[in-house]
Specification:
There is one protein chain. The protein is an alpha/beta fold. The protein has 10 helices and 12 strands. The strands form 3 sheets. Strands 6-7-8-3-9-10 form a 6-stranded mixed beta sheet, with helices on both faces. A 4-stranded antiparallel beta sheet has the order 2-1-4-5, with helices on one face. A hairpin with a 2-residue loop joins β1 and β2 (15-25).
């Protein structure tokens, strides 16, 4: 057992964020932590990372009771966290960002002169080892959101972290970047490291985690090997009741059709086809989602429907 949290309680004024929560993380596992907004997931992980001090409960790391009062305490024990909003300086290079706050050696009490060249070589080695694809000499401002996230992961790996906590890691990524991220996490797992992924996306949990814990209303309500669950059982545990699986589209079609788009195409001023033979119906009382990676015609479709652009 790598980490064990037992009976964790945390209250913010009248809000009971964590209500006697227990969580065990084994070495070499990808552990999914799921639940609705406000279920207490991030609070629990902030406690494990030392950003928040629990009101009561016990934290064991490698079997030893620990008091984690600040992130440095957790980092010293090999626990690190990548937050939803990245903590990077855009004008600095990858290496400069990673070295911020790093002492010359693990456990040293004072900051000493750093060997930038050697550090850059080690960062490059780690990036290659885990398939992160990051050049240590580029400026962070030139990287995509996915690239910046990989820098945050490298920052933890450079500090010899054994347990990585990722808070909603795919929320800012394209589908391709998300698949790449989980490839990285599997490489970390193969090297014996452990990962906790906080997410709302149940399909990601089913496809990419070894163990899953569901939280609801500040409590842990389900934990087990992911292979033993389905998306439906996880959703039921999250909301406390069986989700309504009926599809309402046929009922909606009986109502008034407000918009009909038929075989619409559009090419921009450079002759690039942005919308191709697209058809779309919208009925009264319906919310229609238009999804896709940026630049796949969503904006052009919206402008056509709004009358700003002629197809």
């Amino acid at each position: 057992m790598l980490v064990e949290l037992s009976g964790i309680v945390k209250r913010f004024a009248d809000v009971l964020a964590n209500d006697s929560v227990s969580l065990t993380v084994q070495s070499g596992n990808i552990h999914g932590l799921v639940g609705e907004n406000g279920a207490g997931k991030s609070t629990l992980m902030n406690i494990l990372y030392g950003m928040t001090v629990p009101d009561s409960g016990e934290i064991r790391v490698n079997g030893i009771i620990r008091k984690l009062k600040r992130p440095q305490d957790s980092l010293y024990l090999g626990i690190g966290m990548v937050h939803q909003e990245f903590l990077l300086i855009p004008k600095f290079t990858v290496t400069q960002n990673i070295l911020l706050g790093v002492k010359s050696g693990v456990g040293t009490k004072s900051y000493q002169r750093l060997d930038i060249e050697s550090a850059s070589k080690r960062i490059d080695f780690l990036a290659r080892q885990y398939g992160l694809g990051i050049d240590p000499d580029v400026k962070v401002a030139s990287l995509s959101m996915g690239g910046q996230q990989r820098v945050e992961i490298l920052k933890l790996l450079y500090r010899d972290v054994e347990l990585l906590i990722l808070d909603e890691p795919t929320g800012v990524l394209t589908p391709q970047e998300s698949e790449g991220l989980f490839g990285v996490l599997k490489a970390l797992k193969a090297d014996g490291k452990s990962v906790i992924v906080i997410t709302h996306k149940l399909r990601e949990v089913i496809n990419h985690t070894d163990v899953v814990t569901v939280m609801r209303s500040g409590r842990d309500v389900l934990t087990g090997r992911t292979v033993n669950f389905t998306i439906e059982t996880l959703a039921e545990a999250m909301v406390g009741e069986r989700p309504n699986s009926r599809i309402f589209r046929e009922d909606i079609k009986k109502s008034t059709k407000l918009l009909e788009v038929s075989n619409v195409s559009y090419s921009d001023s450079q002759g690039v086809e942005r919308v191709k033979n697209l058809s779309l119906d919208v009925y009264e009382g319906e919310i229609v989602g238009v999804a896709g990676v940026d630049g796949n015609g969503q904006n052009e479709l919206a402008e056509i429907v709004a009358g700003m652009t002629n197809p």
